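User: Can you help me understand a structure? I only have the sequence.
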Amino acid sequence: MLRHYWRRLLIAAGVRVGSDVLYALVVVFTLTYVTTVLSLSGTLALTAIIVGSACNAVSVLFFGALSDRVGRRPVYAAGALLGMLWAFVFFVLLDSRRPVLIVIAVVIGLVIHGAMYGPQAAFVTEQFPTRVRYAGSSLAYTLAGIVGGGFAPLIIASLFRVYGTSTQVSLYVVAALCVTGVALLMARETATSPLEE
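Assistant: Let's start by predicting it. Here is the structure, written out as tokens:
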């Protein structure tokens, strides 16, 4: 796997990094931001995340099915591009301190995440031929989970603590989504082609 398919492994891990960082922002950091920075109730933050998670579950199914029809890369790329924009709009809505807008911010953020997460399982596994598919996809998920999701909450909190503004946090999310975008450009479309033996 590492000798012959290391490039595919990096690509498959790279496509996951942005979605993991966006998820950390919308789910993990929202709890901290709403309760400690905005001084609003934890119930509001949890309600926004619960409603957003329900919408995320539905959107994952929708975007997964859509990627079967139009391709994995276009759906995934649309999610990454929208995520870059949403990284900034997200804080505008949170900073309004209006409960409805906070819920909308989380819901839309998690629907955008669903646009990447829906095609993700098929897209990552289809990057590898059959004999290394399991090892390749599991390593890709693990690497991205560490680099993207594992460190993201700490990096986001540190950036906010050091700079005292959400701009650097948003730029970090955009940078992670750019990694995903580059990986998508390098990846091969797999929705309409047979699995590689």
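Now, to help you interpret it: The CA atoms of residues 82 and 112 lie 7 Å apart. Helices lie at 6-37, 42-70, 72-95, 99-125, 133-150, 152-163, 167-186. Let me know which part you'd like to focus on.
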